[in-house]
C-alpha cells in the first residue's frame, strides 16, 4: 500500500502530503507504475471472487484508458474475470488479435424478435397488431429504436383494450415518428420543463451532477427536481447516486444528442458559456482536474482565447503524465482555434502552441521525425515575424535537434552556425555556450573530432552564467549532451583516460566502445563488406578481416 497509495493519489489529484514517501520517478515511469497498480488492483479482486469488468462505448475511449485495457487483457487472461467491451463497428481495438479475446458481432433483431420485444415492453398495455407491425417496420431491428418508439406509442395512448379494440374516443389514425431522432424528441417533450432540463443537461455532457445542473439552469430547485424525476421515470435518465452528490446519466448517447440537437445555436452557446463559468466559479477542483472540460465548453461558447488557454493547460497536464497522444490532440485542437482570435494575438499564441507541440512530438514521434521538423520550422517562421530573439533561439535549438537526429548533418551544421551568430549578435552569453555545444555535436558526426572537442570543451565553461538560462536555451540538455559527446571525441582521438575522467565519461566510453563494435560487425558482414570497397568483386570474408 505505501508504494501504490502515492500513485493512486496522484492519479486522483489527491494531495498525499507527508503520509507516503515521495516517488522519484520520471513521468513515463510514473505512468507505467500507475497503470500496473490499477491492473494489480483488478487482479487482487479477481483472486477473492470472480469479477465482471464492463467497458461500454470503447469507440470513444482515450489513448491512456485504451493502454490500460490492453495491459489488463494481457495480464488477466488466466484470472477468473470476464471483461466485456462494447463498441461500434468502425472502431478497431488493439487487442482484437489476442488468442483469448472473442469478437462477437451483434446483429439487428429479426422481425420476430422485434415483435416479442415490443409486446414485452408493453406489459399490461396491449398494443394492437397493426401498431406492433408498424413499430417493427419502422425500427428496422434496432433495439434502442424499438424501445423508444414503443414507449412513445404507449405514452401517446395508442393502445387497445384487452379485446384488441381502441379505447373510446381514440383516433383511428396512427402517427408513428419516422426516425429514432423524432421518437426521442417526442419523448423528451413531455412538458416544457422536462424539455428545458433535458436540453440543459445535454450541454453538460452524457453524465452530469445535479449540483452543476442547478448552477447552470435558471429553473427553481423544486421545478428542476420534478423535471429530473419525470425524466428518470420515463427511462431517459438514470440516477447514479443519492444526495448530496446526486449524478445522472443519459440512458444512451443518442438521447443526449436528440436533446442537444433541438437547441438553437445561440441558446447552445449561452448554455456552454454559463457551464464554463459555473465550473470555474463553483467547482474549482473540477477545473483543475479536467481543464479539457473547460476547454470544450469555452470552445462551444465561442470564447476562443479561454478555450485555447484551457487546451494548453490540459496538454501540459497530459505531458507531465507522459500521456503524449492526448497532449498532441489537445494542442492540435488549440491550434485549430487560433484563426478565431483577433489578428494581433494569433502569431504569438500559435508560436507558443507550436513550441509546446514540438516538445510533445520529440517525446511521442522522435526528435528526428518529419512532424518534429515541420513543427519547429513553422515555429521559426512565426518567431521571426514576432521578433523575439530569446524565443527564436529556443526554436532554432529545436530545429537543430530535429535535423541532427534525422540525420541531416550539413543542415545541422548550418543551423548551429545560425544559432551561434544570433546569440553573439544579441549578446546572450548563456545561449552562446549552448551554441558551442551545437557546433561541437555537428562537428563530431561530420568527423571533425578536434573541432568537436574544442567546441564541446568551450561550452562547458559556464562560470558566472545563470543555470536556468542554459537549461532554457538547450531545452534542458546542457551539459549532459556535451559531456557525452566530449567523452566520445576524446576516446576517438586517443585520450581514453581523459574521456573517462569527465563526469559520466566512464559510461560514455563504454557506450562508445559498444557502438564501435556494433559498427565494425555491421561493416564486416557479408552483405555490407563490398559496399565500402567500391562494390566490385566478391566481398572479403567477415571471418578473416584484414588488419590495418
Topology:
Layout: H1 5-11, H2 27-48, E1 51-55, H3 63-75, E2 81-85, H4 111-122, H5 129-139, H6 143-155, H7 180-188, H8 192-204, E3 207-209, H9 210-216, H10 221-233, E4 237-239, E5 247-250, H11 253-261, H12 265-282, H13 284-289, H14 291-300, H15 304-320, H16 324-337, H17 343-364, H18 370-386, H19 389-404, H20 409-425, H21 429-445, H22 449-459, H23 467-473, H24 480-492, H25 496-501, H26 505-524, H27 526-529
Parallel strand pairs: 1-2
Antiparallel strand pairs: 3-5, 4-5
Helix pairs in contact: 2-3, 4-5, 4-6, 5-6, 6-7, 7-11, 8-10, 8-11, 9-12, 12-14, 14-15, 15-16, 16-17, 17-18, 18-19, 19-20, 19-21, 20-21, 21-22, 21-23, 21-24, 22-24, 24-26
Give the strand order, joined by hyphens, for the main sheet. 3-5-4
Total number of domains:
4
Multimer state: single chain
Sheet of most strands? 3 strands, antiparallel
Q: Given the structure, what is the number of helices?
A: 27
- Mean pLDDT across the residues is 86
**CATH topology group of the largest domain:** Serine Threonine Protein Phosphatase 5, Tetratricopeptide repeat
Terminus-to-terminus distance: 61 Å
Structural class: mainly alpha
Helical content class: 55-70%
Write the CATH architecture name of the largest domain. Alpha Horseshoe
Number of strands: 5
CATH class bucket of the largest domain: Mainly Alpha
What does this structure look like?
The protein has 548 residues and is mostly helical. The protein has four domains: 81 residues, no CATH class; 77 residues, Winged helix-like DNA-binding domain superfamily/Winged helix DNA-binding domain (Arc Repressor Mutant, subunit A); 123 residues, Serine Threonine Protein Phosphatase 5, Tetratricopeptide repeat; 127 residues, Serine Threonine Protein Phosphatase 5, Tetratricopeptide repeat (Alpha Horseshoe), CATH 1.25.40. It is 63% helix and 4% strand. Strands 3-5-4 form a three-stranded antiparallel sheet. A two-stranded parallel ribbon has the order 1-2. β1, α3 and β2 form a beta-alpha-beta unit. α8 packs across α10, α21 packs across α23 and α21 runs parallel beside α24. The C terminus is likely disordered.
Amino acid at each position: 500500500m505505501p508504494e501504490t497509495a502515492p500513485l493512486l493519489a496522484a492519479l486522483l489529484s489527491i494531495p498525499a502530503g507527508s503520509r507516503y514517501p515521495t516517488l522519484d520517478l520520471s513521468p513515463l515511469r510514473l505512468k507505467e507504475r500507475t497503470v500496473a497498480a490499477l491492473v494489480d488492483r483488478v487482479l487482487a479482486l479477481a483472486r477473492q471472487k470472480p469479477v465482471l469488468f464492463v467497458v461500454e462505448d470503447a469507440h470513444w475511449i482515450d489513448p491512456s484508458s485504451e493502454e490500460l485495457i490492453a495491459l489488463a487483457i494481457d495480464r488477466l487472461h488466466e484470472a477468473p474475470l470476464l471483461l466485456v467491451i462494447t463498441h461500434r463497428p468502425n472502431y478497431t481495438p488493439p487487442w482484437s488479435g489476442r488468442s483469448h479475446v472473442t469478437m462477437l458481432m451483434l446483429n439487428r433483431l429479426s422481425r420476430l424478435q422485434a415483435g416479442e420485444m415490443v409486446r414485452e415492453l408493453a406489459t399490461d398495455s396491449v398494443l394492437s397488431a397493426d401498431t406492433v407491425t408498424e413499430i417493427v417496420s419502422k425500427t428496422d431491428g434496432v433495439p434502442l429504436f424499438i424501445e423508444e418508439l414503443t414507449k412513445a406509442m404507449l405514452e401517446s395512448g395508442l393502445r387497445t383494450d384487452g379485446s384488441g379494440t381502441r379505447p373510446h374516443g381514440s383516433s383511428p389514425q396512427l402517427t408513428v415518428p419516422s426516425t429514432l431522432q423524432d421518437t426521442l424528441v417526442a419523448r423528451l417533450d413531455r412538458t416544457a420543463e422536462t424539455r428545458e432540463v433535458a436540453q440543459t443537461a445535454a450541454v453538460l455532457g452524457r453524465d452530469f451532477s445535479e449540483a452543476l445542473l442547478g448552477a447552470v439552469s435558471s429553473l427553481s430547485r423544486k421545478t428542476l427536481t420534478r423535471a429530473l424525476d419525470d425524466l428518470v421515470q420515463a427511462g431517459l435518465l438514470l440516477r447514479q447516486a443519492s444526495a448530496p452528490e446526486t449524478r445522472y446519466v443519459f440512458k444512451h448517447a443518442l438521447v443526449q444528442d436528440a436533446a442537444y440537437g433541438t437547441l438553437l445555436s445561440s441558446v447552445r452557446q449561452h448554455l456552454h458559456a454559463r457551464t464554463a463559468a459555473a465550473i470555474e466559479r463553483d467547482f474549482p477542483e473540477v477545473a483543475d482536474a479536467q481543464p479539457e472540460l473547460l476547454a470544450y465548453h469555452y470552445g462551444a461558447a465561442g470564447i476562443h482565447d479561454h478555450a485555447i488557454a484551457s487546451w494548453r493547460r490540459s496538454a501540459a497536464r497530459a505531458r507531465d503524465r507522459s500521456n503524449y497522444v492526448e497532449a498532441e490532440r489537445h494542442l492540435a485542437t488549440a491550434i485549430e482555434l487560433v484563426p478565431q482570435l483577433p489578428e494581433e494575438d494569433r502569431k504569438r499564441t500559435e508560436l507558443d502552441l507550436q513550441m509546446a507541440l514540438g516538445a510533445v512530438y520529440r517525446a511521442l514521434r522522435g526528435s528526428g521525425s518529419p512532424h518534429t521538423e515541420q513543427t519547429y520550422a513553422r515555429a521559426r517562421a512565426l518567431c521571426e515575424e514576432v521578433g523575439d530573439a530569446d524565443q527564436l533561439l529556443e526554436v532554432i535549438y529545436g530545429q537543430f535537434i530535429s535535423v541532427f537526429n534525422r540525420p541531416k548533418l550539413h543542415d545541422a551544421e548550418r543551423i548551429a552556425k545560425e544559432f551561434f551568430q544570433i546569440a553573439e549578435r544579441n549578446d546572450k552569453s548563456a545561449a552562446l555556450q549552448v551554441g558551442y555545444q551545437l557546433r561541437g555535436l555537428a562537428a563530431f558526426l561530420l568527423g571533425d573530432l578536434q573541432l568537436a572537442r574544442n567546441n564541446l570543451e568551450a561550452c562547458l565553461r559556464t562560470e558566472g552564467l545563470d543555470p536556468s538560462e542554459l537549461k532554457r536555451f538547450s531545452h534542458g540538455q546542457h551539459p549532459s549532451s556535451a559531456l557525452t559527446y566530449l567523452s566520445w571525441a576524446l576516446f576517438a582521438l586517443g585520450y581514453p583516460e581523459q574521456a573517462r575522467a569527465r563526469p559520466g565519461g566512464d559510461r560514455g566510453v563504454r557506450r562508445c566502445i559498444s557502438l564501435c563494435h556494433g559498427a565494425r560487425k555491421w561493416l564486416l558482414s557479408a552483405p555490407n563488406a563490398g559496399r565500402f570497397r567500391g562494390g566490385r568483386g566478391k566481398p572479403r570474408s567477415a571471418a578473416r578481416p584484414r588488419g590495418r
